[in-house]
Amino acid sequence: MTLEGTNTWLLSAPGAPTAVVVDPGEDEPAHRAAVSAALAGRTVALVVATHSHPDHVGGLDAFLAEHPAPLVRSGGGPGSADGAVHEVAGLRLRVLATPGHTADSLCALLGTGELLTGDTLLGRGSTVIAEGGDLGQHLTSLRRLLGLGAQVLLPGHGPARTDVGAALGAQLEHREQRLAQVRAAVDAGAGDLAAVVLAVHGPLQGRLARAAESSVRAHLRHLGVELP
């Protein structure tokens, strides 16, 4: 579900005494220790939470207790609004509201062209439209990111990428294809959610099955179809 794991990004201009930390991760002491070591004596000037899933921010409170700093998160107060700009750690960071994967998803664009996407766009594969997410908003968010002209993708999962436009375009195309598959399953007579999931994804179990159900449900809502 998380590819190689959840990425915590440390951002700082060369020689700057401070850093920005994006998604401190789960409540895991070993991970916090690794982040602290990677800071190499720099002070945390800003923490950014791309969304509220625990693999990204489960350890947020513990991290802030060790590294007190202003927090940017959706609905998180001053500096968190869409379009807010932070001049920090020798960098210029612009906050972007990008709901879809979750209602509270946000991204951040650096003035040097790096785009931090959380789970709005992964380093490979496609993100799940989680409970509380919205496919229409997700498509709108992807199109917005496509228009930014970013040069490097720094995702919440998977590797960094330099083919940002291709990655965003491929994800938009994938979503349109998935919509067509869900529509075709309904038109072919799939009478409930489980039948659509089976037709689109094949047999799945455990967390993958639940993720597929959440994603298919989001596609059905987008199509205006209600199934038990």
Summarize the structure.
The chain is 37% helix and 18% strand.
What does this structure look like?
This protein is of the alpha/beta class and 228 residues long. The protein is built from 7 helices and 9 strands. It has helices at 29-39, 54-57, 60-66, 135-146, 164-187, 193-201, 206-223, and strands at 9-11, 18-22, 43-48, 71-72, 85-88, 91-97, 106-110, 114-118, 152-155. The strands form 2 sheets. The chain has a 5-stranded mixed β-sheet with strand order 5-6-7-8-9, with no helix packed on it. A hairpin with a 3-residue loop joins strand 7 and strand 8. The longest helix has 24 residues, at 164-187. 39% of the residues are buried.
Tag the structure with descriptive keywords.
228 residues; alpha/beta; 5-stranded mixed beta sheet; 4-stranded mixed beta sheet; 37% helix; 18% strand
Low-confidence segments, ≥5 residues, pLDDT <50? none
What is the tally of beta strands?
9
Helix content: 25-40%
- Rg, rounded, reads 18 Å
How do the SSEs run, as a string of H and E? EEHEHHEEEEEHEHHH
What is the straight-line distance between the termini?
26 Å
| Arithmetic mean pLDDT | 93
How many strands, what sense, and barrel or not for the largest sheet?
A: 5 strands, mixed
> What percent strand?
15-25%
